[in-house]
Amino acid sequence: MKPDFSHVSFISAGAGSGKTYYLTNYLKDALIEERAEPGGIVATTFTVKAAGEIEQQVRTRLIEDGHYHLEPQMGQVLIGTVHSVCERLLQRFSFELGLSPHLRIVAIDDASDYFHRSLDEVLDVGRVRSLNRLGRRLGLDDWAGVVKKIVDEARGNDIPAADLKKFGPDNADALLHYFPNTADGDLKGELIAAVDNALTNIDVSLDKTKTTRNYLASLRDVRGLLDQPDCPWVEWIRLSKWKAAKASDAPAASVREAASRYAASPVFQQDIRSYIEELFDIAGQSLQRFQEIKTERGLIDFTDMEQLTLHALDNQAAQERLRSELQLLLVDEFQDTNPMQLAVFMKLARLANDVVFVGDVKQAIYAFRGCDPDLVFRMLEDLTEKGGSTEVLPYSWRSTPPLVRYINAVFSKVFEERIPPDRVILEPKREAYADEPAVMHWALSRGKLEEQVMAIASGVAALVDADHRIIDPDTKAERPARWGDIAILARTNDHVEKLAAALTACRVPMKMTLPGLSQTPEVCLARACLRCLNDPADTLATAEVIALGTGHPAESWLANRMAYLEEQSKEHFWGEDTYPVIRTLKALRQETGHQSPLETVAKVLNHVDIRKIVTAWGPDETKAAQRQRNLDAFLNLAVQYESHSEGQQEAASLTGFLLWLESPRSPELDLQPTITSGNAVHVLTYHRAKGLEWPVVITTDFFQADRSRLWDVRVEGDDQHFDLDQPLANRTIRYWPNVFGSQSKDVPVLDAIESSEEGQRCRANDEFELKRLAYVGLSRARDLIIIPMPDQNRPAQAWIHNFDNDYLIPDSDSMKLPGGHIIPTKTRAIDTTGTALTQPSYAPRWFEDRETGQIFLPEVRIPSHAEPVEDARVVDRHDFDHRLALRGTPDMRDVGLALHAAIAAELVDSEHQEAEARARSLLETHGVAGCLEARDAIEVAHRFREYLIKTFEPNNIWVEWPISHSTENGQLIRGWVDVLVETESGLVVIDHKSSPRPRSEWEQEALEYSGQLMAYKRAIELTGKPVIGTWIHFPVSGGLLKIATGHDGAGGARKFST
Amino acid sequence: LLQPGQAVQRERVATAIERGLFSLLRHLRSADIVTVAPEFEAGAPFKDNDLAGKIDLLLTDSKERDIVLDVKWGGERYRGDALRANTYLQLATYAYLRRGNPDSKRTSWPHTAYFIVETGNVLAQDNTVFPNAKGFSAEEGGGVEDLWRRVSRTYDWRWQQLAQGKVEVVAEGTDPDPEVSVPEDAFPVDTGADRFDPFSILTGWEPSQ
């Protein structure tokens, strides 16, 4: 065990500071300098994609630096997400831990299902009923959801089930501390009397005001509720505020006074206490049962995996092995690790020789899903105290200098109380930037959200129309901004959808993560095919397959259906005689009977040509790509279903899959995959934008109000007894139910809670997180930040109040920053009035609209697949008069590859000392050493080379010469010329063909490759060099034939005999 | 709701039903209801057809008035709107069945109302029968008799269209066919959501861009 943490360093990597470069460099250097063996390195990343990228980049840079032998060893480095690393560690130590080496991971949806089963098992009906009634009185119906959250937090913080019950009384005491002492007497009776008095004594014939009329109507409604069992307490709070018109307010005042005593009601306080205590008690019991259910089925989920790993690291044998093996531990995105992962890393850090945590505390934005930024901050502080070091990556490589300076100015002030300036301020390193504003303020006039999003969408369209200049991220050249350069960030998924609707209305192409996968026509078609396959008598499915699959108008297939119904004897199901697509499904029915649902879905997608059909629907490339991805997602649903069936220990079947699709599932599974390519504006939430960048970023919703996490289930640590080795010790779960409903003003108890020390601390944490979220959003931009803001009407709790300062919103054409830098800015007023999305009249797409029959050309063409040229002919030939001896019946493709290599070797280095050994090795590599003598291969190559030298007197001979060019229609032609002979008068193209066919067939066969030769010729001629001959070489049968087309070669043609 | 893991939800529904039932009893008491016939089977000829159905609750009050009460889980707002706009077709059909039932000795139209379980409210066009009902007085015309006259007109018109081989597809967002003129007094074409339409995939899909 390491005595301290001096071998641990934290790398503070601000947005765009080259974090990935640093990580890959560190890993690469550790390997090159032999500071760590490949097998002794563990590196974790936040996503699977990031893991792949880092691995690939290290591999590339090892090769670039010439360390070829290290590159293949990268396979031994354990790079992956925290979960995959945990999985590998658990498998590795499964014997020591008494676990199965094959961990079965429970599907996400099933985990929630098992939890609800455990709830069912630990609760009797009476208890459920009493909680439902309690929940109704407190206005908190979803108590089961809260229990789930408590359980999740307990698991995520390694808090045992048995400890949960005791948190109940602690929380109840803490919350009720802010309530007044209980009052004696019949408070409800007194309230009812006051209400009845008001209802009787307020005379509407004397007081005809609308206020009083409305007051009485509301009072009557509540009076009915007061009689009911389980009248919600929030009605009392409402009654404590309502007023009648002045003339009648005396009885109303009595109602207010009687109602305002709710907080002192012993019944109310007991309700709150019971609710909290019950929830924690149930959480403890259901957690216990939940774990048992999974164990009974041999399943674990991701949290179990982390927890098992944490405890595995206490195992003596595992510790010893890791201490001797673990040389380097690299953790990426350290700020986003959850408490349990942090605990795992701290244990690993004690065992490793070298530990690097890379992250940016300014970008910790996942508190809402179980992360605890406070814990991360605390750990980093303690690490430094105990010998750990901190290094700051000081440069920004992403954004233009004006933008970097702007972010520095805004956020050094925003974070000044919590983060030292050296971890905020970056020095700009990017050179190229256009002469354009760096920050724009779009001043929106006040209006509804619908109007504001419309204004933003029209602003985007105007920006692209105006050819705003940016620097291309790849080519680094200046050019006008395109749709694909722009991202719009919003706070919620709901706003993302609203923005998307506005962009569509403004005809701006956009991409986003859309819900409703199952409702898309492509998935409907795939599903209808499966239904039809499953049950040929499902006529609705048949109709859908015909309508969507053939595009025939309803008039046509409806008539067909009617005719079918008229038929006297029905020998087949409807559609099987008329529609090929239904016939295909009938044929598939025979063979898919015994196949798994996944195989069946794959088969249907291929055999019914669904991919082709939905591509033809168009209407554009992005949408077509989206449709393909949606079908992939549908295929993935079949995978999910099969893993669900396995977990449930049920047989998977097509019928089961179709039923599973109908049953409610997690919304995650109904998302359409996001298309990231394509020239379209990307609309997404701030959270999803993390780790990405765009030339232009529009940050919206700064003016939206925010809610507090005070009333959520939260976890608090014991700051005074914090121990870096036991970061999860002494953590407690807080849950205070918000029993005030939507009432937020003039509620004295609520005010007391919110202004308490705990309330303030929560608020401060919320605000800090929102500041970090703003940092993540604004630091995504490479060239331009646009902040759309309404000038007025910002709510008091607007998000922007957390980070607004003198530098955030520009108000003229330039802005002077601290330090004297002046950056170009712009303010543009956009009038939002009347821009509200007038829904364009919805014109549904009908089936006959689709463009059928359009053939899409492949993006890349390989010359060897080219069709023969019609007027090609053989104009010259040479017979080596020697046929290569082959033993047995080798695969001629392998022989061809081996000969290609042998000839290339001879042409590149004819003086090689050990030519025969080299040739043998090449034959062995291609598995033909037993069929072909090395000497013979050398002989063929040698003869060929001699002939070239004698015939062409070349200046140079090149082998495997790469060619690539774009055709007029944009297709890419890519290939390699086997032999390119450079002579005084031009180039000669030669391609080897390993065909063993006899001389008599040479001409016919050589002409088949005329297309390929001509494609090479064209590519070379595009470089401006003449091609004087194109030849096919038959190394096996010993011939060389010159091919020409049109007038080519006519002059040099000579007669020859076969 | 009977599946494993659904107990909490199941009990929530049961509690809501129980609460609704108590509200209903209070409404029945305050309206002086003397007989209650649940799932009352009724039928009546209409044009060339026979209509038949079951009335959720057929009530009689102490003044011997018939009341058709249709029980709904929720949707208080749009049912209130239907009462106000005098377009509560289903409820009116039950009223027609009751009036036209051969067993019925009555020729007058029964009173009609909705009972919403979720909120425990009775919705009606007036408070003549249920004193504590939420009132939604009809904006124009009003009354079930007037509504039924329009049903009859609409039926004739649509039947004529079908006889000519015309089927007007009314899917969400489609504009009415300009060549089709809705006769005076018939119901306007309902352009409401087709969320519950099982044939929606056959009637055009996704907005064209």
Architecture overview:
- The complex is a heterodimer of chains A (about 1050) and B (about 210).
- Chain A has about 1050 residues and is of the alpha/beta class.
- In chain A, about 45% of the residues lie in helices and about 15% in strands.
- In chain A, strand 21 and strand 22 form a beta hairpin.
- Chain A starts with 7 loop residues before the first strand and ends in a 14-residue tail after the last strand.
- Chain B has four helices and seven strands; from the N terminus they run αβββααβββαβ.
- In chain B, helix 3 packs across helix 4.
- Classes of the chains: A alpha/beta (about 1050), B alpha/beta (about 210).
- The interface between A and B is large, with 42 and 31 residues.
Largest interface: A-B, 42 and 31 residues
Main-sheet strand order of chain A equals: 15-16-14-17-20-11-22-21
What does the overall shape of chain B look like?
Answer: globular
- The overall pLDDT average of chain B reads 86
Largest sheet of chain B: 6 strands, mixed
The amount of helix of chain B comes to: 25-40%
Identify the overall geometry of chain A.
Answer: globular
Rg estimate of chain B, integer Å: 20 Å
Percent strand of chain B: 15-25%
Tell me which oligomeric state these chains represent: heterodimer
Helix proportion of chain A = 40-55%
Instruction: Give me the count of strands of chain A.
Output: 30
| Average pLDDT taken over every residue of chain A | 88
